[in-house]
Amino acid sequence: MLLKFIIFNNMDLGLKDKVIIVTGGSKGIGKGIVSLLAKEGALPVIIGRNKSSIEMVINEYEKLGLKVGFAYAELTSPEQCKRSVKEVLESYGRIDGLVNNAGVNDGVSLEHGNYNDFLESINRNLTHYYLMAQLVLPELKKNKGSIVNIGSKTADTGQGGTSGYAAANGGRNALTREWAVELLPYAIRVNCVVVAECFTPLYEKWINTFDNKDEKLAAITNKIPLEKRMTTTEEIANTVAFLLSERSSHTTGQLIYVDGGYTHLDRALNTNN
């Protein structure tokens, strides 16, 4: 009997030369997304305010022979956002995708917070998602582009002491589905990747505020059902890249939880049995 073997190459996501804006793309989850997109042959463009951080990662990518663009903007400033998108178009001539990623869990609570801080938190964590999507929309309409919003489990589970951030993430989820409906006529897909416990530099900084940091980290990871470990930035990036690509060509309006089952599986499960 003659056996025939088919050799499959790695999946080509078809992202080569696609210009994709990633807000907050120089650190943490954003950096993981930018790195993977660059390796897939896309042209990710970081937009953020931290010039030293952006310059550092751009130098890293150049040494690896990866092409990554950037534009500086304080995302709470509409004028700076407009200018940054204009710079991207002047430099690259097109925009094929947007990853709304930038934000910070800023601890604006109900009991100890105030109106102004709450409003500022919404601006830091939600308003620029809307603005950036609106600014790139004319370009996405030309090429059936894709939007991926990065969200947080705080919208589903709550956290305590972070009303602004939780409300902003609820808004991210709602806008994902609202935009998916509104942009159907243009075949623009909109999805959200929801993150729970992902070990980023910012997360590490928070863990280090505890005297018993090792015990605190162990208590958290023990509640993550799948393998009792944190999600990696690479795992978030893998899903984002898929959603930006034509490999997910009939996926829109979805909230996809890349969290080891943290949000929806019972954390009281004894997975050793």
Describe this structure in words.
- The protein is an alpha/beta fold.
- It contains nine helices and seven strands, in the order βαβαβαβαβααβαααβ.
- Strands 3-2-1-4-5-6-7 form a seven-stranded parallel sheet, sandwiched between helices.
- α3 (78-92) packs parallel to α4 (115-143) and α4 packs parallel to α6 (163-182).
- The longest helix is centred in the middle third of the chain and has 29 residues, at 115-143.
Quick synopsis:
With 273 residues, the chain is of the alpha/beta class. The chain is built from nine helices and seven strands; from the N terminus they run βαβαβαβαβααβαααβ.
Key traits:
single chain, 7 strands, 44% helix, seven-stranded parallel sheet, globular, alpha/beta, 273 residues, Rossmann fold
Q: Give the helix level as a range of percent.
A: 40-55%
Low-confidence region ranges: 4-9
Q: For the record, what CATH class applies?
A: Alpha Beta
CATH topology: Rossmann fold
Describe the main β-sheet briefly.
Answer: 7 strands, parallel
| The CATH superfamily title | NAD(P)-binding Rossmann-like Domain
The assigned CATH architecture is 3-Layer(aba) Sandwich
The strand count comes to: 7
Which percent band covers the strand fraction?
5-15%
Distance between the termini: 44 Å
Spatial shape? globular
Give the structural class: alpha/beta
Mean pLDDT: 92
